[in-house]
Structures are given as C-alpha cells and as structure tokens.
Amino acid sequence: MFRANSSRTLGRETAEADAQHTTRRDIVRMAIKKSPLKKRDLEEIAAAFATPFHIYDERAIRRNARELLKAFAWNDGFKEYFAVKATPNPFILKILKSEGFGADCSSLPELILSEKAGIVGTGIMFSSNDTPANEFQKARQLNAVINLDDISHIPFLEKNGGIPKIISVRYNPGEQRAGSFIMGSPENAKYGFTRDQIFTGYSLLRQKGSRRFGIHTFVASNELDPDYFVETADMLFDLALEIEEKLKICLEFVNISGGIGIPYKPGQTKVDLAYVGREIEKKYKDKIRGTGLHPLSIFMECGRAITGPYGYLVSRVLHKKEIYKTHIGLDANMANLMRPGMYGAYHHITVAGKEDCPHDCTYDVTGSLCEPIDRFAIDRSLPRIETGDLVVIHDTGAHGHAMGFNYNGKLRSAELLLREDGSVVEIRRAETIEDHFATLSFGRLDRFEV
User: Which among 346, 348, 380 has a CA at the least distance from the CA of 363?
Assistant: First the structure.
C-alpha cells in the first residue's frame, strides 16, 4: 500500500462535456480545475504503479453519494442503484454499498460483481435488453428486482427463471419526451415498452403471478438541466395514477433512472441535486400524497453523476511532435479513455506542477493508436509541455476505464483508489501481455497447416 503525501489539497471538482475545441475566452476559466493530488504525490504514485492509471478519490465519492441521499431524504423509500456499467469495480461498489446504495446491473458479469461486493436481493435492479436466458436466471437466483425491457420478455422470463412476485417495467415515452445526443430520441431508441404495451404487460404479469410492481424510464444521458429530471418524475407520477385507475394496480416505486450529467468543462454548472429533490417532492405532494399510491418509493440509477468527477487518468508525456501542428503524445491512448474519440467529448487536462502557469500554447494531445481519432484534445490551450511531464485528464471516474478495449494490442491500465486517509491502493492491476494472449490457442499453432 502506498501512502500519498498527507499535505495534498483537494481541488474543485467541476467539469462538463462535449466539444473538443477551446477558445481564448476559455483560457482563464480553465485554470480552476485541479487534481486532488500535487505533482510530488503523482510522481511517487507513478513510480510505484507506472503510468497510465486511473485513480479515484474515495472521500469525494462518499461526499457526493451523501449529497444525493440528502436531497431525497423526504422520501422514506428512496433508493439509489449505482449504475455498475459506469465504474465496474467491486471496491467502488463496496464503498457505495456502505453509503446505502444498491446496484443497477445490465449483464451477468455486473450481477456477479455486485454479488461479490455484497449487494444482492432487492439491492440489485437488473435492467437489460436482448437478455440471454442465463442472465435472467442469475438475476432470479440473486432475487434481484428485474426491470423488463420488452413485452416479449415476459414469456421468455417465465420460461427462463420464472415470473417473480416483484417486477418492474421499462417505459419508452416516445414523442412525449425529447432525448439526448448520446441516447437519441425515445421513439428511435431500442429500449422499453410503448404506452399501450405498458398496460398490456402489467395485466399479463399479474395473471402470471406478479403482485408487486414498479415502473422505470431512462431517456437521456449526461443531461445538465435539473428540470429534465423533475419532468421525468412528473411523467411517471401521472402514468402511475393512470395505471391505478385503469388496472387497479398500485405501483410500489417509480424509477426515474440516471442520466444526470457532470460539468466536464469549466464554466458549466453542476446539477443542483437539492433542487431536483425539492421540486420532485412538490410534484409528489401535489399528485401522489393523499392517493392510494402513497407511500410511493422513488428510485434512481445514477452512475456518471456519482463517480464521474472524482476519477482521473494520469499519463506521462512520451513525445512532443512538431509538424503542421504540435502534438503531445501520451503513454495513454483511446483504449484508456474512449469518450473523446467516440463522442468528440471534452475532458479537461491539467499538467502536474503547471496548474497556475499561463495557458499560452496550443496542442493536440494524442495517444498511440493507429487511428486519427485517438486524441484527448484538439487545439487545446495548455501550459508549455515538455517530454516527461505528467498530464492529468479529469472526470474519468465513469465510462473511462469501463469502456477500455484492446485494439492495436493496447493493454488496459490499472485502477487505483485514493483512500480517505491519504493512502493509495491498487483496486485493479494493469493488464499484461499474458492477459492479452490468454484466450489465443497458441498450443495448436504449430500443428496448424496452411
């Protein structure tokens, strides 16, 4: 176990997304986003574990988790199911379980990760699509709450695991709601039941033995408008009341899912969770309290908003290439952080030890994949960078390491955890060449004739 310098200072966790390019007007504001570790700490950690690596700030993650729970403390049944896909590491899950979180799972490995972290039963919300039989069977074995994505899954689940007493249904509101850049418009999405299928589905599930019901929707990703989530809750409250009226089914919970964005770019505003909680409480008092649905539990499935701002990809500058533009080549690449190449997403970059230096140089910050999109930044204003500098790429705590891959034979990096006491522990080792080759049938190669 490595102990970071206890005199480190935590910087402000702000950030948001999605456009690689910056302007001169941004340069002054850019300097406000800092790493929770000083250069000397990062150099010691890099000497112990080697770059590149993702490192997560436990203290900040816990503080953020408590902020969400406080915002919905008025709802006795409130439950946050952390989206495992965002940061699929059992150490992170165990931390969040200790704060009262459950787990939102969408695959067999995610179910197993949750089980290993001690999250089972109704602590798991299993929301998947195109689900194979063995995944439904594992969810049933763990007594997870299954959230069905399609009406055709009802007979499939009945055959492969059985219809549980408690079940949820995923609603696709179609043209009723606008979508987002990442998710697309709901009517074009592959997820969920239509409005008519919702009523047919609940009736069928009741006939087949379900007795406790919930409803779920997820229509946006990385959304920064707090009113969007209030409107989602309001929509589900109305639908729950209509289901009660038409089917005489009293839902136990509405799951407004996740989708809360983070301010990847300095100058953007973090979603005010307290405001979201207050405004949803007003809708609840107006529509649900005093009806047969009260008390109705509210569930969420935030992932990015919980861990996203508190993860950092730390990388070493290998090369500085001067051609038509100046390229800063890192030992990290798109395999360590896919979002900039895949979405054109913005991730803030600071240079260790040069946080307060003028941003008077313009660089493309690149990785080593044989792909032109392998860039962390394009025309980014940064301090002067030299070979050997440590670069910190911010807001990689969700959908960072999780989206890694092995194209070009690149190996995925380690994951580290900065503990509350200042120590640093490895919670996932870096991949090795042996790992990469483990599934190849080299033993047959000598006998393979061509």
Answer: 380
Same domain for 271 and 176, yes or no, is: yes
Provide the sign of the torsion angle of the four alpha carbons 323, 326, 329, 332, taken in this order: negative
Average per-residue pLDDT in the chain? Answer: 91
Give the distance, in angstroms, between the CA of residue 121 and the centroid of all CA atoms in the same chain: 22
**Cα torsion 309, 219, 298, 92: sign:** negative
CA 166 to chain centre: 26
Global model pTM greater than 0.70:
yes
User: Residue 276: how many CB atoms within 10 A of its CB?
Assistant: 22
171 DSSP assignment = B
Return the H-helix or E-strand segment holding 169. strand 166-170
Does residue 413 have a pLDDT over 80?
yes
**Quick one: pLDDT band at residue 7, thresholds 50, 70, 90?**
very low
The whole-angstrom separation of Cα 220 and Cα 180 is 5
Enumerate residues 6+ apart whose C-beta is below 8 A from 346.
16, 17, 18, 19, 20, 264, 265, 340
Q: Is the peptide bond before 52 cis (omega within 30 degrees of 0)?
A: yes
Q: Are residues 389 and 372 in the same domain?
A: yes
Closest of 123, 201, 208, 206 to residue 161, by C-alpha: 208
Which residues are marked as active site? 370
Same domain, yes or no: 356 and 264? no
State the total domains in the chain.
2
H helices of 214-300, where?
A: 226-247, 273-287
Higher pLDDT, 267 or 8: 267
Domain that residue 151 falls in: 58-307
Place of tokens 């047919």: 200
Residues in the chain: 450
